Amino acid sequence: MATPIDDFINLAEHLDRLPERWARNIAARLNRFLSGETDDVAAALDLKVARGKRRWRGASVFAARDSAIREAAETFFPGMKPTQQADALAVALRRYATSAWCIDRQKQECPYKAGDLRAALWLILTRVDYAVAARRIRKILATR
Q1: Of the candidates 14, 8, 2, the residue with the CA atom closest to the CA atom of residue 45
Q2: Contact assessment for residue 132 and residue 90, using Cβ atoms and an 8 Å cutoff
Q3: Max Cα separation, the chain?
Q4: Angstrom distance (rounded) from CA 59 to CA 72
Q5: Residue 117 and residue 76 in contact, taking contact as beta carbons nearer than 8 Å
Q6: How far apart are the C-alpha atoms of 9 and 30, rounded to whole Å?
Q7: Taking the CB of residue 86, how many other CB atoms lie within 10 A of it?
Q8: Cα end-to-end span (Å), the chain
Q9: Given CB 3.0 to 4.6 Å as the disulfide criterion, which of 2, 86, 124, 139 pairs with 6?
Q10: Which residues of 91-117 are buried (b: 16+ CB within 10 A; e: fewer)?
Q11: Is the pTM of this model over 0.70?
């Protein structure tokens, strides 16, 4: 029966044979752990986070939320200036977060049709479970 280390070795060898650059990069990182260069898998895979920086999981969650915010602003508040979009979206988000979201947060699938503003608000809050202030939304919209 293969041990977890055997699985890592096999994975590194397999990735090293693939032509894609990303596969070879992962293989090199795994080999840093397997060779004993470091005993920390996260450090070997370059997943360690510097002080004051967001962890990669959190960063991807916030990136998904920010993308949903940008899409909602463009879809439901077209023709408005970014400041107006941010204000309108923040009001809608706060209203939804304090009402229907209390029930909707437990649902695995969106209870609203795709073109509905509430569907966009549901998506935003499933990424990060709190309403975002207009000031933050303005910053998000500025990085389109």
Answers
A1: 8
A2: yes
A3: 62
A4: 20
A5: yes
A6: 8
A7: 25
A8: 50
A9: 2
A10: ebbbebbeeebeebeeeeebebeeeeb
A11: no
